[in-house]
Amino acid sequence: MIKGFKEFIMRGNVIDLAVAVVIGAAFTAVVTSIVENLINPLLGFLFKADSLDNALVWTVGEAQFKFGAIIGAIISFLAVAAVVYFVFVMPMNHFKERAEAKRKAGQPDPEEPETELTVLAQIRDLLAEQGPVAGGPGAGRHAGD
């Protein structure tokens, strides 16, 4: 049981997930600050409100529908997605492509793998080149037999 747990913990994807959670939390703080301190005041100025939470509020009776808060959450999500893509995903894909191109440049193109059929055909051709084998079929026969 301990061995299985150790193997689970040592897998690369568990460590990658832990790193992603930590980095995600750090970027969430940065993006939240940008949204709350830059984007919300700018949009609040455009909509004549203190922040997006108080912009585009639709009141029906006692209920308040805060469309500005929804827009703020969407902007926050898009900001996080943009940071993750442009800071992590795009550069990593670029580095992977460069590494793959370097690896392929130093190696010849892989040949097709040999199948049983091609190996058997090679054996047949080699046997045909050698001619009849002593003691094999047809060996020791004479024309008059």
Secondary-structure map with pairings?
Elements (H helix, E strand, L loop, with lengths): L1 H9 L1 H35 L10 E4 L2 E4 H39 L10 H15 L15
Antiparallel strand pairs: 1-2
Structure description:
The chain is mainly alpha-helical and 145 residues long. The protein has one domain (2-130): Large-conductance mechanosensitive channel, MscL, domain 1 (Non-ribosomal Peptide Synthetase Peptidyl Carrier Protein, Chain A, Orthogonal Bundle). It has 4 helices and 2 strands. It has helices at 2-10, 12-46, 67-105, 116-130; strands at 57-60, 63-66. It has a two-stranded antiparallel sheet. A hairpin with a 2-residue loop joins strand 1 and strand 2 (63-66). The N and C termini lie far apart (75 Å).
Quick take:
By secondary structure, the chain is mainly alpha-helical.
CATH class: Mainly Alpha
Number of strands: 2
Give the class from helix and strand content and strand pairing. Answer: mainly alpha
Arithmetic mean pLDDT: 78
CATH second-level architecture = Orthogonal Bundle
What is the beta-strand fraction? 5-15%
List descriptors.
145 residues, mainly alpha, Non-ribosomal Peptide Synthetase Peptidyl Carrier Protein, Chain A, two-stranded antiparallel sheet
